[in-house]
Amino acid sequence: EEIQNLTSQNANLNEEKEQQTTQLQNKAEQIANLQTQQTQLQTEHETRVQELNTQMDLIVEDLASIKECKCWIYTKPIRDLKKIFGE
């Protein structure tokens, strides 16, 4: 009878061990999936930051071109008058 109890306990422990192993494997897969998602998000973030930096550079270049263009230079006195008379 004691042998049967021990055998039964052993079988229960083996089953519990298998369940825990399965749970650990599932958690390892979840961790791997989350790490993949994190890498993708970091890549997307870096790409967006680069795109924004490029857009900012283009805007700065455009503003510099506008400031240097002849129409901006020729209209400067008018803009100065507007500042003086407060329109």
Please explain how this structure is put together.
With 87 residues, the chain is an all-alpha fold. It contains 3 helices and no strands.
* Order of SSEs: HHH
Question: Treating each run of at least 4 consecutive H or I residues as one helix, how many helices?
Answer: 3
Helix content: over 70%
Mean pLDDT: 90
* General form: rod-shaped
Radius of gyration: 35 Å
Structural class: mainly alpha
Give a quick account of the main beta sheet: strands, pairing sense, barrel closure: none
Q: How much of the residues is beta strand, in percent?
A: under 5%
Q: Span from first to last CA?
A: 104 Å
- Low-confidence sequence ranges: none
Number of strands: 0
Short summary:
Helices cover 94% and strands 0% of the residues. It has helices at residues 2-68, 70-74, 76-85.
What layout of secondary structure does this protein have?
Elements lengths: L1 H67 L1 H5 L1 H10 L2
Features:
0% strand; 3 helices; rod-shaped; 94% helix; 87 residues
